[in-house]
Amino acid sequence: MNAPFLIAKGITKRFGALTALSEVDLEIRSGEVLALLGDNGAGKSTFIKVLAGAHSPSDGELLIDGVPVAFSSPKDAASAGIATIFQELALSENLTISENVFLGRELKRSVLGVPFLRRKEMKERVAGLLKELEAHISDPQAPVGSLSGGQRQAVAICRALNLNAKLVIMDEPTAALAVAETRKVLSLTRRLAERGCAVVLISHNMADVFEVADRIIVFRRGRKVAEKMRSDTNPEEIVSYITGAHPDVRALEKTN
Ligand SMILES: Nc1ncnc2c1ncn2[C@@H]1O[C@H](COP(=O)(O)OP(=O)(O)O)[C@@H](O)[C@H]1O
Ligand SMILES: [Mg+2]
């Protein structure tokens, strides 16, 4: 097994009197899809915001490749190789695929001191990424506004890869998609892991999770209550951890 890319140790996040995350320990490995599950309010989004540098933990620490890190902004997390694909995707409808992938980091060359965009190179790089992901999008010059929901996910994933992300966090990537599109996004997710990325997938869809995840972690009321290899569990058991019906969770909640 690979050494973990990221280790979270005792991550706690308080918002005033409310404890959104309580002493969460977990490891995220390169080449692995880790699914994060839990009911609404369980702390999933808060946790990924800590990973993404959007929230500082109240307590605990993050280590990347064994080295403690403290992110004071999403930019810090991005520099450390963490890319988060939020549900809203944050793509610009009126720009092309290639422009979206390179947004804010365009390749330029200077001719007599005048900057020119290296459009051809950018287009070729994006075409290569799309092909590698088997995204079935032939034209990097197509406007993002013309794409389906699944194709937009592919563009967001390309952007993450173009930033050399080592960890890609996907928040409910299939929530708004039809069945065929969902299949495509799940296979993109798998290919990211095969490419050596660590992937964290947040999803409510048990079938999706069981299809694509290597490992499953359940949060409940801000705590990690289960961590299972997919091959060692089943959807019924995971649901019982989420709802708190599982005997382990009942025992844990009795002592707290
Ligand atoms: N910025 C915030 N300020 C105050 N409370 C928050 C904030 N963000 C999340 N919370 C609270 O933290 C808890 C966990 O929320 P969240 O991480 O969004 O859960 P999930 O994503 O699993 O649904 C909830 O009780 C939520 O209301
Ligand atoms: Mg959430």
Automatic annotation (TrEMBL):
The keyword Nucleotide-binding applies. One of its GO terms (molecular function) is ATP hydrolysis activity. Keywords: ATP-binding, Nucleotide-binding. SUPFAM superfamilies: P-loop containing nucleoside triphosphate hydrolases. It comes from the Bacteria. InterPro entries: AAA+_ATPase (IPR003593), ABC_carbohydrate_import_ATPase (IPR050107), ABC_transporter-like_ATP-bd (IPR003439), ABC_transporter-like_CS (IPR017871), P-loop_NTPase (IPR027417). CDD domains: ABC_Carb_Monos_I. Residues 6-246 form the ABC transporter domain. PROSITE patterns: ABC_TRANSPORTER_1, ABC_TRANSPORTER_2. Transmembrane segments: none annotated. Belongs to the ABC transporter superfamily. This is Monosaccharide ABC transporter ATP-binding protein (CUT2 family). It comes from Phyllobacterium bourgognense.
